[in-house]
Specification:
Rossmann fold; two-stranded parallel ribbon; 173 residues; 2 domains; globular
Length: 173
Amino acid sequence: LERLERLEVEEEDLATLNIKFPPAPRSGQIVAEINEAGMSFGSKHVFSGANFTIEKGDRIAFVGRNGEGKTTLARMLVGQLTPTEGSIRIGANVNIGYYAQNQDDLMDGEFTVYDTLDRVAVGDIRTRLRDILGAFLFRGEDIDKKVKVLSGGERARLAMARMMLEPRNLLVL
């Protein structure tokens, strides 16, 4: 014990960040209706008979094994894919935010971290971008880095921060 070096532990940062994100439009009670929806890619049948309604305030999860269509169903819900059978109807005033599995790859690598958020920020939130980036662990010179040099985790954090700045009332993660 005498030979052990005593380490000083830094105090935990208990600072909080209060951000008022842009309000999303108020959606109707029915957010989405999925009626007997199914999807095939050529001869590969992914799923069929999806039948459910998402109402305002609902929180749902798609659960299943790999290859059973969870991502396909999410992409259908956000309009990236059209069902090959059945239908999907999005309700009134629904503004969808989608955090795709490859979300971090969808950002322009030539923009800086700061510019990536500045492009989507509206109103008073623009004056707080440095604070918001700090809350997502981008500090100091990090905000001037180009997106293309960020690690995968850094790009994922930036993509989440960007999505939070846009007024959304349906999040698909």
